[in-house]
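Researcher: Quick test of sequence recovery. Tokens follow.
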């Protein structure tokens, strides 16, 4: 709809107010899918800050409240949004996942699915760098495993940070099968660069 062009002329705080007024954070999921398809057709593209506000307003509450796998509508909306605005989406969702105490099993699975199937290479690197900025936990190991499963070429400094982090964290994960699989994956995928 032509009315959506207003999204390009809003400041981030105005956009937050508009999303709140339209109750986008609680709109029915089928409408969410349609709204995301409209966003993809928007020209010019949304700015990074506007896309981050929309990612937060559209998805954050839904993702944090997951206690079972996401619906197909929610996954379709996330995939659609991710196809154009993966960087801001990662920043918003992964930041929340990293700060979320407890297990967050469904959130972790969702992040892994996005990494494996939706994200562009530069966003995969962003996910890796964000995970490496916090102390590793058992719940983050699957996300790292998903990143390695993509077999992306990593910048040398990011690969060095990954290896250094794994070396430093090894004693804390002495009995973790997931950690052992992660180390094996690093040695397999990046065997030419890891001495």
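Model:
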């Amino acid at each position: 709809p032509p009315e959506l062009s207003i999204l390009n002329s809003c400041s981030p705080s105005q956009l937050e107010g508009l999303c709140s007024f339209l109750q986008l954070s609680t709109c029915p999921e089928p409408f969410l899918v349609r709204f995301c398809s409209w966003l993809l057709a928007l020209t010019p593209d949304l700015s990074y800050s506007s896309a981050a506000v929309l990612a937060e307003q559209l998805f954050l509450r839904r993702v944090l409240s997951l206690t079972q796998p996401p619906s197909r509508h929610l996954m379709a909306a996330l995939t659609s949004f991710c196809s154009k605005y993966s960087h801001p989406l990662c920043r918003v969702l992964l930041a929340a996942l990293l700060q979320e105490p407890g297990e967050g099993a469904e959130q972790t699975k969702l992040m892994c699915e996005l990494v494996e199937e939706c994200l562009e290479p530069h966003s995969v690197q962003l996910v890796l760098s964000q995970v490496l900025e916090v102390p590793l936990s058992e719940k983050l190991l699957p996300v790292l495993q998903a990143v390695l499963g993509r077999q992306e070429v990593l910048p040398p400094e990011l690969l060095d940070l990954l290896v250094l982090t794994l070396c430093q964290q090894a004693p804390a994960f002495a009995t973790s099968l997931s950690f052992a699989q992660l180390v094996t994956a690093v040695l397999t995928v990046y065997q030419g660069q890891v001495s």
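The chain is about 65% helix and 0% strand.
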